[in-house]
């Protein structure tokens, strides 16, 4: 996915994304393990660029984020590492979530990331709930009510499959409330 040319005027960037940073999702989604000595593997070039791109949101207000995250994605594609491609797609999706006119691109990247995570985890994995929730937020922002409802129903099915659809599960109850609201 290419970045816009430098000759076009930059769109105004919101100070805040409609999403929480995707770093919070990576703890549960990541499959990177420690080695036999308890050490985390050395980050690849794409992961270093991803980290730098995400840090850009706090260091320079995101001015260099798109460029760094695009380079991270390019490196991940070169390496053909499914997890790295999923991570960098999340980063780009988050980057585009700051601009209303780029929300479609944000959604595309989040959906692409989801398809990659589903290759690493079962499509019914509870680990996908947060990512699906973010996708539904973008869909609602784009006035895609039915797709957002379908995404939330997918979450509901995952909770049921994991036997976590109990009235004591606050996250599940919040999901039920959101589904009811969309069905009205």
By CATH, the superfamily comes out as Tetratricopeptide repeat domain
Order of helices and strands: HHHHHHHH
- In terms of DSSP E residues, the strand content is under 5%
**CATH architecture title:** Alpha Horseshoe
Overall geometry comes to globular
Describe what is shown at a glance.
62% of the residues lie in helices and 0% in strands. It has 184 residues and is an all-alpha fold.
Name the descriptors:
mainly alpha; globular; 0% strand; 184 residues
Architecture overview:
The chain is mainly alpha-helical. Helix 4 (82-96) runs antiparallel to helix 5, helix 5 (103-120) packs antiparallel against helix 6 (129-141) and helix 7 packs antiparallel against helix 8. Mean pLDDT is 89; it is low at 1-12. It has a single domain (23-30, 42-183), classed as Tetratricopeptide repeat domain (Serine Threonine Protein Phosphatase 5, Tetratricopeptide repeat, Alpha Horseshoe). The radius of gyration is 17 Å and the shape is globular. The termini are far apart. It is built from eight helices and no strands. It holds the Pfam family TPR_12.
